[in-house]
Amino acid sequence: MIKIKVPATSANLGVGFDTLGIALNIYNIFYIKESDSLIIEGVDKKYQNRDNLFMVAFDKVNEKLNTFKNIHLKIETNIPIARGLGSSASLIVAGATAANYLNNNKLSTQEIFQICTSIEGHPDNIAPALFGGFTSSFMHNNIPYTKKIDVHKKYKFTVLIPDFEVSTNQARSVLPSSYSREDTVSNLSNIISLCLSLNDGDDKILKISNNDKIHEPYRKTLIPDFDLLKKECLNKGAYTFMISGSGSTCLTISNDDNFSKKIDTSKCKNNWELIDCKIHNSLVEVEEL
């Protein structure tokens, strides 16, 4: 039996729409062994089949290697579904990694990255889930590329997870079909400053560089408590506040290991779970049990 642990991911980081992503120490854990028939435990019955994203990625790697395998899969789910924390990316990365391992790691990590991205559709969540850390990713000739950016050790991350979902399709539907040159240039300039300030610890620039014009003004309408929580977090010392991925989770950056304990959610319309996180920095690993 093998064990694979894949971190949650938060994409966009405000101005980094479909580009930036970060891996956080909340994990989905997968236990896999070869079997005569497909058995999947730990998820609803409707996901106990080959349409499960884990199996889609697993089968795609096997197909590339001209093999076919059945497995007994047990999933320990800690990343909430449809909350903007990369639950789908975790399944895809785990499935592809498992298949590659069971085939003696015949594919390179870059090949696994490309297969996973082709399933997910874009690399912003796949890259940090697979490689760990803070990543900036892009596509060139249908091939994904990523660069890791070191984050200053003083920065701490807190996720705010509500009791409602926002699907990716719903979050995409509220976005405009085009943007002005002014808004595009604003995001381009801000994303560079955001990355540099996270790297070198420039608090002043970090505070003012997350001024997104591409998705947050539209998607925050799907999160009733967004403005209230943003004000609360910034007043309590957070450097910045943003939607995690496509929502509904939000993410804040501070210098406090216990920032969640400062935040009052009693005036919110919804219930929120706050979790203080650290960056998960390492490549996905497979452990033999």
Defining traits:
single chain, 289 residues, alpha+beta, Ribosomal Protein S5, domain 2, Alpha-Beta Plaits, 2 domains, four-stranded antiparallel β-sheet, globular
Q: Any idea what the shape is?
A: globular
Strand content: 25-35%
Helix content: 25-40%
Reported by name, the CATH topology of the largest domain is: Ribosomal Protein S5, domain 2
* Corresponding CATH architecture of the largest domain: 2-Layer Sandwich
Integer count of domains: 2
Q: Helix/strand/pairing class, anyone? A: alpha+beta
Regions with little confidence, pLDDT below 50 for 5+ residues? none
Cα radius of gyration in angstroms: 19 Å
First and last CA, distance = 5 Å
Q: How would you sum up this structure, described in words?
A:
The protein has nine helices and eleven strands. With 289 residues, it is an alpha+beta fold. The strands form two sheets. Strands 1, 2, 3, 4, 5, 6 and 11 form a seven-stranded mixed sheet that branches. The protein has a four-stranded antiparallel sheet with strand order 8-9-7-10. α1 (53-64) runs parallel beside α2. It is globular and about 55 Å long. The model has no long low-confidence stretch (mean pLDDT 96).
Set out the fold topology.
Layout: E1 2-11, E2 20-35, E3 39-41, H1 53-64, E4 70-76, H2 87-102, H3 109-120, H4 126-131, E5 134-140, E6 143-149, E7 156-162, H5 168-173, H6 181-200, H7 203-209, H8 216-219, H9 226-235, E8 240-243, E9 250-254, E10 272-277, E11 286-288
Parallel strand pairs: 3-4
Antiparallel strand pairs: 1-2, 1-11, 2-4, 2-5, 5-6, 7-9, 7-10, 8-9
Helix pairs in contact: 1-2, 1-3, 2-3, 6-7
